[in-house]
Design a protein that fits this description.
Bound molecules: 1-O-pyrophosphono-5-O-phosphono-alpha-D-ribofuranose
Distance between the termini: 6 Å
Number of helices: 4
Structural class: alpha/beta
Shape: globular
Strand order of the largest sheet: 4-3-2-5-6-7
């Protein structure tokens, strides 16, 4: 594995994102919706750096079939416990690759009539896109690389690493 983004750089970026999002939602309460499992560490750090009031909830998604990412068929295996109606909601994701996951969840949650619905992803891999989806807030744009650490795994390993690595 090769180091891609050091812990200090990750933390600086998360602080910057939290500052920007806190400014944009000043005076409002935000519901952070984390997508399990990959987003759990980013979500925890982001939430701690927000200066506006936040609540948190989580969803877990699964893709159908073996060609998971390319099939584009996603379902919710653990739903939110919170009603979104009338709330300001921010979906928190660790990485956008094909865009299938976020595109699916965005439309499903939009149907629940939140007051506003935005998305943040720590990493963006634009070369991987199969559906056109742009997040409102992005930390780092990376190339077509397989990354682990800071919540992201390879066969469930490495999620606890504080920095981000490319697997070679
Ligand atoms: C990863 C990542 C995103 C999704 C992005 O999740 O955490 O949720 O893939 O890919 P996409 O843009 O191509 O849809 P994964 O399915 O590996 O599950 P995990 O978060 O539990 O590791």
């Amino acid at each position: 594995m090769k180091l891609l983004i050091a812990e200090k750089e990750v933390q600086k970026k998360v602080s910057r994102l939290a500052r920007k999002i806190s400014r944009d939602f000043a005076g409002r309460e935000l519901l952070l919706v984390g997508i399990l499992k990959g987003a759990f560490i980013f979500m925890a750090d982001l939430a701690r750096r927000m200066t506006t009031p936040v609540k948190v909830d989580f969803v877990r998604l699964a893709s159908y079939g073996s060609e998971t990412q390319s099939s584009g068929r996603v379902r919710i295996t653990k739903d939110l416990e919170t009603s979104l109606r009338g709330k300001d909601v921010l979906i928190v994701e660790d990485i956008i690759d094909t865009g299938v996951t976020l595109d699916f969840l965005f439309h499903r949650l939009q149907a629940r009539r939140p007051r506003s619905l935005k998305t943040v992803s720590l990493l963006d891999k634009p070369e991987g896109r199969k559906v056109d989806f742009q997040a409102d807030y992005i930390g780092f744009t990376i190339g077509n690389q397989f990354v682990v650490g800071y919540g992201m795994d390879c066969n469930e390993e490495y999620r606890n690493l504080p920095e981000i690595y490319v697997v070679r």
